[in-house]
């Protein structure tokens, strides 16, 4: 028996349908000598801290850093029933085929399941970029030993272990150092925190922005061929920072002022088609056009993939392999009738073929499949994406466009004016996107654009013109825009934060934890998120450092990087992070007064109303109130008590009856007692 393990039930059904007529069973399908089963994403995960050491269940400085010598795997509780089904089928099988999603995370899902089964049987890898019957048949005929993907698995495991080490240790250290009792943990993540820092940095830039007024002088010139508008210019700027200056320019060019066209420059420009969609590009375009979040786009793209309409979505590639390029005619031929008017002009340019880039990404760009049959029912989001993917696919295969960029320099009244415009000579590939480009992006904050009007044809050097009208237009510099899903994804890709499969989830985690919120389409850091960043070390906020780690993971996946070297750096970084937090906690001014006299393990730290033990989470209740019998104690007096000494006689106490008295203080069994000089002195 051959056991095939897919990542989702829908993929298992697709594979089973290609192999024959499946029999349905509880948690699996049978087709001849094949048994096809499935996971529901992750069924196995890295163990929680207390599995390694019961003491690690407690959030204390004494348990940090947590650095397991060997990571352990445990079943995810809610998925144990299906995991048992898979393990039972694996044990009966002669051969096993890994058919989880063909990416780093899919590799990890299978490896964890297989390792927990404790088996040593031959395993082959089914690598699918599409779920069409033809693609599945081709993949079944081209399987490789699972060992051929060991480098990818090593990168996946290193990523998971790095997230465990940095995330859990940093979260506990920061919470112990800066957390407030009753308000939960301060969550820190290897990718999550630098992403939050990017959002907060943009918010800070906007908060610090000071708008500056400026003015532009727009002059309408009358030529024999028609009117055109020129902006006053001085060398390389068309802005005037002095309104009086702008008004003086207008006064020098009243209506009827003669002018001369000094030059007309025309430049022919080739406009190349865009490359194909990567997931990041698709998410950015869907957000700009339809206001879809990154996660909504990923979910819809995954649904299109599972409905066999488009290729695998989690890809960084924008190109195709030679082999896939040969399938383009079939894909074009089977597109819905709506798009057939453009397909005759389509050719695959060499810039769209790069086997090496596809190999590095693991999958080619997102393109439509040669589906051919009726289109299944689609949600609005799926329909929007399907249309975008098809149009981008066709546009990338169409001829280039050609524009003429025109620059006119005009002189009048001793002043110079510049006019710029573009004339489309050949539309080319843009015809496919014309209808899409005319749509107004949902909620998009459009930059203010002055309508200058068309440039008349036939203008030439030395031609005489006349001023028809001159206006002063007041404007103000604008702050940079808030980040949104599209622009944040662009920054994450630029800095190497996360992967196509994880970026959307990172954004959702920040939203769920209250560190970021949506304001219409914008992503804005909250007071909670900003407060967290203020207490975190700069290194853990650094997009550059996390980007370097991601780059090292890529080299591991490519078989050129060292897992040992990467994990050694991660462990050293974790140790440094915890040590720094402990030092800061111990050296914080006015907070650490010494060892706890009761549990002898915690440190005495200051709260708002009292000094208490840092091990309060473990049950140590030692407390010294800052105000005793109406008198506020000093840190020096508390330190004296903590070392077992009696204070000098202190004045300023008030009894319950309101009478003042003096006394010394000492600690007895962790409680403050008054010590009086003589029996005649008043007792509290």
Average per-residue pLDDT, rounded, comes to: 90
> What spatial form do the alpha-carbon principal axes imply?
flat
Major sheet details: 7 strands, mixed
Total strands: the figure is: 25
Write the CATH fold name of the largest domain.
Answer: Topoisomerase I, domain 2
How many independent structural domains? 5
Instruction: Indicate the structural class.
Output: alpha+beta
Which homologous superfamily in CATH is the superfamily of the largest domain? Topoisomerase I, domain 2
Query: What's the N-to-C terminus distance?
Result: 86 Å
User: Runs with pLDDT <50, length 5+?
Assistant: 438-451, 680-684
What Rg, in angstroms, do the CA atoms define? 34 Å
* CATH domain class of the largest domain: Mainly Alpha
Query: From the 3D coordinates, which CATH architecture of the largest domain would you assign?
Result: Orthogonal Bundle
- Indicate the percent of residues in helices: 25-40%
Number of helices: 23
Give, in spatial order, the strands making up the sheet with the most strands. 2-3-4-1-7-8-9
Portion of residues in beta strands equals 15-25%
In short:
With 684 residues, the chain is an alpha+beta fold. It is 38% helix and 21% strand.
Any descriptors?
alpha+beta; Rossmann fold; Topoisomerase I, domain 2; Topoisomerase I, domain 3; isomerase
What does the secondary structure layout of this molecule look like, with pairings?
Elements: E1 2-6, H1 9-19, E2 23-25, E3 28-31, E4 34-38, E5 44-46, H2 49-52, E6 73-75, H3 80-92, E7 95-99, H4 104-117, E8 123-125, H5 133-141, E9 144-145, H6 150-178, H7 192-208, E10 213-223, E11 226-232, H8 243-252, E12 258-271, H9 279-290, H10 294-306, H11 322-325, H12 328-333, H13 340-343, H14 355-361, H15 380-397, E13 401-412, E14 415-426, H16 430-438, E15 464-476, H17 485-495, H18 503-512, E16 516-519, E17 522-525, H19 527-535, H20 538-541, H21 543-557, H22 563-587, E18 604-606, E19 610-613, E20 623-625, E21 627-628, E22 631-632, H23 635-642, E23 650-654, E24 660-668, E25 671-675
Parallel strand pairs: 1-4, 1-7, 7-8
Antiparallel strand pairs: 2-3, 3-4, 5-6, 8-9, 10-11, 10-15, 11-14, 12-13, 12-15, 13-14, 16-17, 18-19, 19-20, 21-22, 23-24, 24-25
Helix pairs in contact: 4-6, 6-21, 6-22, 9-10, 9-15, 9-17, 10-15, 15-16
